[in-house]
Write a sequence for this structure.
């Protein structure tokens, strides 16, 4: 046990009883400490090297003794986009901001999502004064159903739409009745007290979902601002601009430290306004001769309102397909965030006689803009949708951009739709999607209004946060005052306005959710899945004349666990060609050499083509 850590905990975060080291993932079998070493194979290059975790077994005396520093511990959102959650400590009070999930990284086979590790908070639940939610995206609210029970249900604070979405999520797990929801109806004027030492004020921000807010926490050491996810939009979909006045006013009062969104920090300029996007989409809808099928994110309520208006103007009825689209639209209508004439919008379900309407009176609004496997649009593209068959004359609009990792799936859906005769319009053709996050000029504006002494770029991978740091330096924030943190780092803010990163660290693991299992998927299971996935087999069977060794036709290819069937045709055909070429280059009948050469050539091709390394087994049958 480390004395320094012991006294550190004793003094600040205040641990009352012995706490075992979190063990959400099973211990490693191979050497090395750390919990996330399941990425031993080629995918390693996609994954950050894990910082040496300096957290140790935590134990401290039974009494709480606190110093006069505020401490902030980001539990997620620092090394990834997703899993956003931070905890702030001062004396006996703890306040949490956001509680999100992260979609799995590419080497987390079969994992649905990842949630923050809150083990170190579990013995301090009586000190948690509440969780403030900045907005309703899943990377900010998606872990609530798992985390609230662990933290003994602290109250949730948020704007009406944010809490509405949180409730919807908790409803699915039967937890809503256990939670106290405290609505922030008027962010511009409301102030909430959190325990003895913290109070929070809010400012409206623009984002890709309505009702987003930034937070100004008034603490005994100074004001700490958390921007939430934001951009500035002078002509937003819902007409509600970021609260420039309040942001400037907070800046005038003095901001010691700001945590700010880094997602788009690499993009120069300003983020395009929703108005531009809405106008472009409206034009496409009005000019389309046949049906319009539009896929977008179900949380883009503001944009959906404009789509609904445009469809209405061109005399189209709107049919919703996809579960999240139906539930989000219903909730937004109920809470007054979306307005439409009665009967204009309806879910597309059995009994709806959509095909009796003329094509130019139909608009289908659906999910699947990311090429998600079971989504409405993917089913339409595969001609597997029970009610909609894509056809000549249809216009399909992707009002989205593919998130990293989804590009291939989106391309596949696009190709399939084109094959069925539809016209496909994406953000590459025309601005029909814009990000919800601040570009460099937006960041400069935020920081110029807030004028924080210290800045912690959050919500982004390291390269995004680096870019954020560079931008902030350009407008005069001192380099030494911009701190990049990892998940679990402890930021200490002393009353003399000295902010520094502690040498100690809270251990935070990846808590993986697979189906109903929480944290039961660990390293060994992931390793097994990884090995299985990588040992997929490609067998190449040549038929050749016994005498000459000359090939008879193209080889047969049999594979297992190697490619998605829907994508496999092209790859299989190309593999055949590569194999035949390699075969031809070997002097006849030296089958050992054939095996070597064909394996080498095919492995190289497959690696370059789809970045996989299956086992390759060439085999020749002589006739
Ligand atoms: Zn967001
Ligand atoms: Zn976010």
């Amino acid at each position: 046990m480390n004395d320094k850590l012991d006294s550190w905990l004793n003094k600040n975060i205040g641990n009352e009883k012995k706490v075992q080291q979190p063990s959400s993932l099973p211990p490693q079998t191979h050497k090395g400490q750390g919990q996330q070493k399941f990425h031993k194979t080629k995918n390693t290059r996609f994954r950050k090297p894990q910082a040496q975790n300096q957290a140790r077994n935590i134990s401290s005396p039974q009494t709480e003794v606190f110093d006069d520093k505020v401490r902030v511990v980001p539990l997620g959102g620092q090394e990834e986009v997703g899993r956003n959650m931070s905890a702030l400590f001062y004396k006996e009070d703890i306040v949490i901001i956001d509680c999100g999930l992260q979609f799995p990284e590419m080497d987390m086979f079969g994992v649905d999502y990842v949630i923050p590790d809150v083990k170190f908070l579990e013995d301090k639940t009586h000190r948690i004064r509440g969780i403030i939610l900045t907005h309703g995206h899943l990377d900010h609210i998606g872990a609530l159903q798992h985390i609230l029970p662990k933290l003994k249900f602290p109250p949730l604070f948020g704007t009406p739409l944010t809490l509405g979405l949180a409730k919807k999520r908790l409803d699915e797990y039967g937890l809503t009745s256990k939670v106290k929801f405290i609505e922030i109806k008027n962010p511009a004027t409301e102030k909430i007290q959190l325990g003895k030492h913290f109070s929070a004020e809010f400012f409206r921000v623009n984002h890709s979902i309505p009702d987003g807010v930034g937070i100004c926490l008034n603490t005994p050491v100074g004001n700490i601002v958390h921007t939430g996810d934001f951009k500035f939009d002078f002509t937003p979909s819902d007409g509600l601009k970021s609260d420039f006045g309040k942001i400037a006013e907070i800046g005038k009062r003095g901001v010691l430290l700001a945590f700010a969104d880094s997602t788009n920090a690499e993009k120069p300029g300003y983020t395009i306004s929703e108005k531009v996007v809405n106008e472009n989409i409206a034009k496409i809808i009005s000019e389309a001769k046949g049906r319009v099928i539009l896929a977008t994110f179900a949380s883009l309520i503001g944009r959906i309102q404009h789509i609904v208006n445009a469809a209405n103007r061109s005399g189209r009825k709107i049919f919703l397909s996809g579960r999240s689209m139906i539930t989000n639209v219903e909730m937004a209508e109920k809470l007054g965030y979306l307005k439409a004439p009665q009967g204009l919008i309806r879910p597309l379900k059995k009994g709806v006689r959509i095909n009796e309407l003329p094509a130019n009176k139909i608009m289908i609004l659906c999910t699947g803009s990311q090429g998600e496997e079971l989504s409405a649009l993917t089913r339409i593209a595969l001609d597997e949708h029970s009610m909609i068959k894509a056809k000549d004359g249809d216009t399909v609009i992707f009002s989205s951009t593919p998130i990293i990792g989804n590009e291939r799936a989106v391309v596949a859906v696009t190709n399939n739709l084109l094959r069925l005769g539809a016209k496909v319009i994406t953000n590459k053709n025309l601005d029909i999607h814009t990000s919800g996050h601040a570009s460099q000029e937006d960041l400069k504006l935020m920081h110029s209004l807030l004028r924080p002494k210290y800045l912690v770029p959050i919500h982004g991978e390291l390269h995004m946060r680096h870019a954020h740091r560079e931008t902030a330096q350009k407008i005069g924030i001192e380099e030494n005052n911009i701190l990049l943190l990892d998940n679990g780092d402890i930021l200490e803010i002393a009353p003399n306005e000295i902010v520094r990163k502690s040498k100690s660290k809270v251990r935070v693991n990846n808590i993986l959710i697979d189906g109903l299992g929480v944290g039961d998927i660990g390293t060994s299971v992931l390793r097994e899945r990884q090995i299985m996935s990588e040992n997929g087999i490609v067998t190449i069977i040549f038929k050749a004349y016994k005498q000459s060794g000359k090939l008879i036709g193209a080889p047969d290819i049999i594979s297992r666990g190697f490619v998605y069937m829907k994508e496999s045709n092209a790859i299989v055909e190309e593999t055949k060609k590569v194999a035949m070429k390699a075969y031809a280059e070997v002097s006849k009948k030296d089958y050992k050499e054939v095996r070597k050469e064909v394996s080498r050539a095919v492995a190289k091709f497959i690696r370059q083509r789809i970045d996989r390394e299956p086992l390759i087994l060439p085999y020749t049958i002589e006739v």
Notes: Residues 135, 137, 207, 229, 436 surround zinc ion (ligand 1) (CB under 6 Å). The first strand starts at residue 70 and ends at 76. Residues 1-11, 15-62 have pLDDT under 50 and may be disordered. The chain is about 30% helix and 20% strand.
